[in-house]
Amino acid sequence: MFTNRIRHSIHVCSFVHFNESLQRHDVEAIHPGYGFLSERSEFAQACTDAGIIFIGPPAKVVKRMGDKVEARQAAINANVSVVPGSPGPITSSEEAMEFCKRYGLPVILKAAYGGGGRGMRVVRRLEDIKQNFELASSEALAAFGNGAMFIEKFIERPRHIEVQILGDKYGNVVHLYERDCSVQRRHQKLVEIAPAPSLDPTIRKSLLSDAVRLASSVEYVQNCN
């Protein structure tokens, strides 16, 4: 959090004692950093409800894009290409099996309502579906309080490329180009390289355009005023 009183202090906020902290300090704005609170729509909403500037996207955008099923549908609505995936969360290995029979292997199971590499399993054999679904679902339940899964076709040796976005309250959205986050361990990024090396110019142009269009369609705003 940021206040004039603690300008030269380490800015730390405990979500558990959020209201208590607001009462103790003259809080004007909160920057949640990255990961953890920055990805929790409840925290963004709590800031808004308290009249505090949350330096990040609105709670409704955090919630929608943090839900893999909703984010996928938002991409489809914005005419952004997606790989074959389940139209909604799945709650049984039988549903996962049906998907595999229809679309083929390999597939990847992901926590429908979480991220950060937790609750993820790649499956390459039908006989491994049940065990991997149960393991991934249990991990998702422990980490996010919801064991629902999302399944999609797995792309072998993909590149993980992200586009940085800024949007204002007037509806303007711009990109700050891309970064390559393909060097990972356990689905966690280790190195980020910008710009992405050896990226075809045509693909880069399409990627940046898609990112801006998607951000505009979900009314992405980066609050910082």
Describe this structure in words.
One of its GO terms (cellular component) is cytoplasm. One of its GO terms (molecular function) is pyruvate carboxylase activity. It holds the Pfam family Biotin_carb_N. The radius of gyration is 19 Å and the shape is globular. It starts with a strand and ends in an 8-residue tail after the last helix. The chain has helices at residues 18-24, 41-49, 59-66, 68-77, 93-103, 129-144, 201-217, and strands at residues 2-3, 27-30, 53-54, 107-111, 121-123, 149-153, 161-167, 173-180, 184-185, 188-189. The model is unreliable at 9-13 (pLDDT under 50). A 3-stranded mixed β-sheet has the order 1-2-3, covered by helices on one side. It has 3 domains: 15-56, 3-Layer(aba) Sandwich (Rossmann fold), CATH 3.40.50.20; 93-153, Dna Ligase, domain 1 (2-Layer Sandwich); 158-224, no CATH class. The chain has 225 residues and is an alpha+beta fold. It contains 7 helices and 10 strands. The longest helix is centred in the C-terminal third of the chain and has 17 residues, at 201-217.
Which keywords apply here?
225 residues, alpha+beta, Rossmann fold, Dna Ligase, domain 1, 3 domains, 10 strands
Brief write-up:
This protein is α+β, with helices and mostly antiparallel strands. It has helices spanning 18-24, 41-49, 59-66, 68-77, 93-103, 129-144, 201-217, and strands at 2-3, 27-30, 53-54, 107-111, 121-123, 149-153, 161-167, 173-180, 184-185, 188-189.
